[in-house]
Amino acid sequence: MAPSTTSLRSIFAYANNFVSQFPLNLPTLPTLPNPLAILGPQAPISTHNSVTPYDPLTGTPTCPINGPISCHNTSVADSCCFIHPGGRLLLTQFWDEKVHVGGSEEDWTLHGLWPDLCDGSYDQYCGMAPQFNNISKVLEHYDQADLLENMNRYWIANYGTNDHLWAHEYNKHATCINTLAPNCYGENYTPGLEVVDYFVRAFSLFKMLDTYWALANVGIEPNYKKTYPLAQIQSTLEDFSGGRVILKCTGRHHNVLHEAWYVYFVKGSLQSGDFVPAKDSFKGSEGNCASHVRYLPKRHK
Predict the structure, then answer these.
(1) Which of 84, 100, 141, 169 is catalytic?
(2) Which residue of 33, 58, 100, 253 is surrounded by the most CB atoms within 10 Å?
(3) Of 136, 84, 76, which Cα lies nearest the Cα of 273?
(4) Is 173 designated active site?
(5) Exactly one of 173, 194, 258, 259 is catalytic; which is it?
(6) Helix axes 145-154, 162-173, angle to 10 degrees
(7) pLDDT digits (tens, 9 = 90+) for 7-35
(8) Could you tell me which Pfam families the record lists for this protein (predicted)?
(9) Catalytic entry in 100, 111, 141, 258
(10) Catalytic annotation on 169?
């Protein structure tokens, strides 16, 4: 049975919606408030509007409210308030084949937040932001225990350690986001602030996009025997998010639902901007799934 819109799951999904090596001789810094806890429970957001951000808390510049939206401006803009050239942001989720953490049978997991180029291609390991290889230690240093706990539940590696996955995602993708450059933090910059901002924004966006709930709410639930029309899944998730969703499948016939990529532009910086659901089609926007797909229950290890 599809859950009601007043279920605990839906309340939880929306209550948290805003929410080179790191040097070992870290400076003494004031404790940053936990950005996942600064707001109380929220009413369900309108999924057709832009995603309002959290206050970055990390010394980034205040960007104008009337600034351009990424991939929608041909003139040069403030590089700390305009994401370029990777201005199309993809929040990517997995439906894993197995349960990694007890109680996560009904959870999609986070793969990453990727800055694709405006033509649908992408760069990687760009060097616009510094590299970090010990993400857990950085987040612990900045008092992000709650964020780290949630990442260990929902941002899970299929192979190897979660820390290795996070470092891979950060170094491959976050280093291509120009607003995370140290110069955008001004004179109060200390190494690791950009790490906090990237993972807070990625995880907060993920928690707003409860793919399991969106599908179950219209009767699409994991089942070994059923198949579902891909068009129904596509339209359901696009109505839910307000923008384009790219679906990826596995299996010999590409008929096993495995990934959902939610596509956004950003008005302002990654740290403090609004995520605006993308409406357009573009190179690379097509999924690879068959017309009818299986949505398989997770298996325990």
Answers:
(1) 169
(2) 58
(3) 84
(4) yes
(5) 173
(6) 100
(7) 444 434 434 333 333 333 333 333 333 33
(8) Ribonuclease_T2 (PF00445)
(9) 111
(10) yes
